[in-house]
Amino acid sequence: MGFVKSLKCRECGQEYPKEPIHVCSFCFGPLEVEYDYDSIKKVLTKNLIASRSENMWRYKELLPLDGEPTVGIDAGFTPLIRARNLEKVLGVKELYIKNDSVNYPTWSFKDRVVSAALSKAKEFGFKTVACATTGNLGNAVAAQAVQAGLESYIFMPANLEQGKTIGTLVYGPKVIGIEGNYDGVNRLCSEIAGKYKWAFANINVRPYYSEGSKTFGHEIVEQLGWKAPKHIVVPMAGGSLILKIFKAIKEFKMFGFIPDADTKLYGAQASGSAPISTAVKNGWDTIRPVKPNTIAQSIAIGNPADGYYAVKTIKESGGWAEDVSDDELVEGIKLLASTEGIFTETAGGVTVAVAKKLIEQGRIPRNELTVICITGNGLKTQEAVLGRLGQPRLIRATLDDFDALMEEDTSSASPRGTKRVLAAAKKK
Amino acid sequence: MPVTVRVPTPLRPLTGNAEQVEVTGRSIKEILDNLESRYPGIKSRLCDEKGQIRRFINVYVNDEDIRFQKNQDTPVKDGDRISIVPAIAGG
Ligand SMILES: Cc1ncc(COP(=O)(O)O)c(C=O)c1O
Ligand SMILES: [Zn+2]
């Protein structure tokens, strides 16, 4: 292993050695991992990949380690399912769900990036890892740090959903809640990262971390039988995942694993935090930051670091971006659950609702292969649907009560009979 | 009217490794010009050829992004604290 040549500035091309650094010291542009693709091409084949275990490290030549992965090695290779019921509801011919809501170990696509980040942090010899998080990243860093025997510090907005907060605390890291929104957390963390010599997943080891997202795209292509979809709908926060999915498809095209890389990328945001989709829709090439106001907290980033490139990549691919209200995203969560039996979090609700919108707008043609990226799990954001799903109907533990209830169901086909059943039960 | 500017790591070689410096000026633009006369070369690191602040740099006056204010025309006053922070990924 070990095909990384250097780090390279995406803006000005300046090269740097493989170190825990993330910005170009000349122009502040983001540093990207540079691979020796010629050497990878000589060893990596579809058969070799297919012969390996079902996790993200089956593509290890395209990941930024010098040695073997040591942390989170069971992440990835989540199901790609044909969504036949959702196809009918949306009126489309061929629709798939890539389901990272069941990723391992913490049920979001962040398990991938963190596996890459912490494996790299171990290579660098760090003893402490950290991150600024909107929820999922913190869950993944805290859990995988335990596996790796590393100390961890998690910085997050103080008002995150209970599931996200508990899903970090349970692993026993140092957790710091910060007043205000995520963008403030990030700004503070950049100062902390300058002062304390830790591996910050999303800061100084970000060039390595973000490469882990590529495997989401690699898997889609492999699981479709080595074929790139025509359309992919991707949730966007900082805008990194959408870039890396595109990069993954282009890598496979470069190796000749697929004939074409003509996938159109569609970015999904919540309207209350939509700096990237707003730029796409208005034809701007700069991002105007916003102050987030949405229940989709995992993707509520008002100042997206990769926003500029996300806009560029979406346009280049021939895709588009859209955003949806909080009500629409809740309907998106319910739609996916009620058609495919998948309970996704707010970000997934956004992605489903945006896909629906784009299909209705005619931007995604009804007869072409489309993949919706589901990146997180609904059990972590239960507040979003609390009070919007009705209640269990209460009866006593008697067959009489249940029979009365069934009678109502068959006569009225209405689920609102509980009260009368209970009233009837009381009379007896 | 001196304000405090926190210097990000990549620029510290230019400020003799100072983590923060005191500069005078009434707007971000004046601060940038005065930084340049004190530490020649620093402005071209922060701004592109057109004089715009580079797209991966965020500038804050007392914790508020200047893009929510008047960009380089954002006024600054005695005792204000300016941070220059590279863009950061998230999740
Ligand atoms: C569930 C979920 N989906 C999508 C994203 C978006 O990721 P990116 O910042 O790469 O755009 C995040 C980021 O936190 C997330 O938690
Ligand atoms: Zn550069």
What count of helical segments of chain B does DSSP give? 2
Helix and strand content put the structural class of chain B at alpha+beta
CATH topology of chain B: Ubiquitin-like (UB roll)
Number of domains of chain A: 3
Query: Which overall shape of chain A is indicated by the principal axes computed on the Cα atoms?
Result: globular
**Sheet of most strands of chain B:** 5 strands, mixed
First-to-last CA distance of chain A: 75 Å
Counted by DSSP, the helix tally of chain A is 16
Beta-strand percentage of chain B? Answer: 25-35%
Shape of chain B: globular
Ions, cofactors and other ligands present here are: pyridoxal-5'-phosphate, zinc ion
CATH C-level class of the largest domain in chain A: Alpha Beta
Quaternary structure classification: heterodimer
Cα-atom radius of gyration of chain B = 12 Å
- Give the termini separation of chain B: 39 Å
Most extensive interface: A-B, 46 and 24 residues
Helix percentage range of chain A: 25-40%
Describe the protein.
The complex is a heterodimer of chains A (428) and B (91). Chain A has 428 residues and is α/β, with parallel strands linked by helices. Chain A has 3 domains: 4-73 and 110-210, Rossmann fold; 80-106 and 213-384, Rossmann fold (3-Layer(aba) Sandwich); 391-428, no CATH class. Chain A contains 16 helices and 13 strands. The longest helix of chain A is centred in the N-terminal third of the chain and has 15 residues, at 110-124. The mean pLDDT of chain A is 95. Chain B contains 2 helices and 5 strands, in the order ββααβββ. The radius of gyration of chain B is 12 Å and the shape is globular. The model of chain B has no long low-confidence stretch (mean pLDDT 93). Chain B has a single domain (3-86), classed as Ubiquitin-like (UB roll). In chain B, strands 2-1-5-3-4 form a 5-stranded mixed sheet, with helices on one face. Chain B has 91 residues and is α+β, with helices and mostly antiparallel strands. Chain A binds chain B through residues 11, 22-30, 110, 113, 132-134, 136-137, 182-184, 186-187, 189-191, 194, 202-203, 206, 209-210, 237-238, 240, 286-289, 291, 298, 301, 303-306, 308, and chain B through 6, 8-10, 45-46, 54-58, 60, 63, 65, 67-68, 83, 85-91. Zinc ion binds at residues 9, 11-12, 14, 24, 26-27, 29 of chain A.
